[in-house]
Structure formats: structure tokens, C-alpha cells
Amino acid sequence: MKMKISFLLLFSVFISLKSCSNGDDIANPITITDPDPDPDIVLTDPDDQGFDWEGVDIPPEAGEGKFWKLNQEASDDFNYNFDATPSAATFGGKWTNFYHNDWEGPGPTKWVRENVSVGDGDLKIKATRVTGETKSFDVDCDVDGVAETWTLPTTRAGCITSTTRVMYPVYVEARVRVADAVTASDVWLLSPDDTQEIDIIEAYGGTGEDDRNLWLAERVHLSHHTFIRNPFQDYQPRDAGSWWRKNGVSQWGGQWVRIGVYWRDPKHLEYYIDGEKVRILSDNTFASRDVNGNWSYTYPQPVSNGSLPTAANGFQAVNQASSLDQAQSNSSTSVIDPLNYLNNGMNLDKEMDIIINVEDQNWNACNGRTPSNSEIQNEDNHTFKVDWIRIYEPKEVN
């Protein structure tokens, strides 16, 4: 969804360590059992009747004196047909079959309208390749401060954008089947000016024929971004908790998963997977549930010389705390926009489009994690499916 140059150095560390790693990415973390278990919330909004998600509880609480109201204009269970077309089209009354501007995509990606369709109750977004077609792009793959030009086989992929926008407080949740491919399967939010982004799911689900994508395949990326567009600057959290693992899942490719983000206010995000709260970003602190289900509470080490420090393990350097309250009390550094790229009080505060797509991202592709010509021939593996997406807003009880 963006140029993740900051991850290039990080992943050079990951790949070199995988042969001796047991999967525990935080050395001697403080893990605390969640003191406030997630409540079972009964879904009561009558607008949910008849949709595929009817009876599926909404994980976060709407707040005292409030209830969750379905935003029917933005929600969709894709129980209709839309045939792929190379022409610009609006379907379901809710989506256009391209990105929210005329950008064709990151790295070797080329978004094409004909790779989007709806059928059998699912949105289907696929990746394909035309023999001999290539795309050139610039990326600092060796992390020496100078971008190189790369030319690789083009990965054609689908992308859709909502015709309406969402704004906090809002809960956005989707049930998806991650593509069994090294490409990214994405559901995300992006402001019209491309300066604020919230990633609901970003998963690189397939291991690849040669297992070159093992580390990424077993994790789901939970992140957000703040940008300066010119000259381009990109912040996103790089702490270990932003890469979530589930016990017993060796790869997300081919798996159906329910994932949601509660954008509570400009300084607070909560991530839920299959109804379980797994990550919190609150103003100046991180809280993350590990692979064993335990919580760890951390806060960033302060900005130094205009950048966020990196720990020896390759992740963003953080300090440990015994509770979220202690982390908030000790922290002096935002986790939302610590480099003040937005110049707005470090807030995610703009309306955002909903975007669903497949991507072959530059930082992955230049490191060999792009589909091989033989891999991409398997269309089912390279199809990202969405069963439904639902959007709720908290409303006062009358």
C-alpha cells in the first residue's frame, strides 16, 4: 500500500535470523495476562437481519449509553454478481473497480479493473501476469540511502475503492480468505490526500514454492501510516507486536479469518482477529497479545536525531511496562505520528476511503518475494476473497 523502505533493513535482519529462530521475536518480554477480558457483546441492531454476519458479535464495546449502529451504505456481504470488466464501473452501489486515484500501484504491481469480480457470495480480487510484460520502479533495496531502479515482471492485480468514506468513531471488520501467495492481501483505509492510513489486514499468506516467504506467511501485519507526500516520508510502527501470530497457524494463505479495527478516536486504534482483541495503539503506548495469548505493554524509545531508534533485533526500540497505564505514564513519544508528519497534534483525524486490493510491493519484490511465473499460474492461490465487510458507528441509546 505504500513504499515500505523502512522495512528493508528490518527484513534483512529477519531473513538472516530465521534459520536459528524459534519464532520468539522479543527477547525476554514482560507478558501480562489481560486484566480486562474482552466481553461478549450481544448484537441487537435490527439492521443486521438478513446479512451474512447476522448473529456475529461485535467485539468492542460501543461505550456507556451507546449501541452499535450498522452503516448499511458502506457495508456489503457481496451476495450479488459483478462480472469482471476492463471498463470503469461501479458495482453493488458501493464500490468502484480501481484505486481511489489514477496511481497504478506499488513496485511491479499494475492494478487492472478486469481482475475484480463478485460471485458465489464473495468479492474476488486476483493477481495475474502477461508473458513478457515488465514494470520499472525505484526502491532502496540495499538500504544505502540511494534508490535503485528495478525492472521485474508486472503483477497485474485488482483493486476496489468505496464510494463512501468512514470517520471515527467507527468499527470496520471483514471476513476474508487470504490469498495463498507472496503478494499482499489488503483491506485498508486511506484519506483522500494520501496522508493518513489505517491497515485493517495486510497479509502475505503464501510461503512460495521455495519457502522464501515463510516468516511473513505465518504473520498478519497490523499497522497504520502517516505520510509527507513531498518529499516522501512514511511513518509506521515497527515494534514486534505489529506482526501478529496465532498459535497453530503456520501460514495465513488459504485461511478464512475475521479481522477488524476499532478507530475509536484520533489517538486510539484497537485490532480484533476472529473476535479477539490482539493489539492496541493508544496515544503513546503499544499493547500486544503474543502467540500464547498473553499481553505485553510497551512504549517507544524517544525520537533521536530525527528518527526512531531500532533495537538489536531489527524492530523499533521500545521500553517494557507492567501495564498499559504504566506505559502511558512513562511514555513521552506518540505511537500515532511520532515524527509529526501530519503537523496536526499527532492525530488520525481525516475521513478515509475503504480500499480492498492485492499488491506486489516494491520492498518485497526487490528481495525476491514476488510471484514466480509458475506460482502465478495457480489462479485460486492468487485470488483474495472477501465474504463480507461491515461498518458500525456508536450511537446514543434513545
Automatic annotation (TrEMBL):
Domain of life of the source: Bacteria
| UniProt family annotation | Belongs to the glycosyl hydrolase 16 family.
Query: What SUPFAM superfamilies does this protein map onto?
Result: Concanavalin A-like lectins/glucanases (SSF49899)
The UniProt keywords, alphabetically, are: Signal
Q: InterPro entries attached here?
A: Beta-glucanase-like, ConA-like_dom_sf, Glycosyl_Hydrlase_16
Domain GH16, which positions? 51-397
Q: Please state what the protein is called.
A: Family 16 glycosylhydrolase
Against Gene3D superfamilies, the record matches this protein to: 2.60.120.200
> Which PROSITE patterns is this protein grouped with?
GH16_2 (PS51762)
- Which source organism? Aquimarina litoralis
Coiled-coil stretches, from where to where?
none
Signal peptide positions on this chain: 1-21
The answer to whether keyword Ribonucleoprotein applies is no
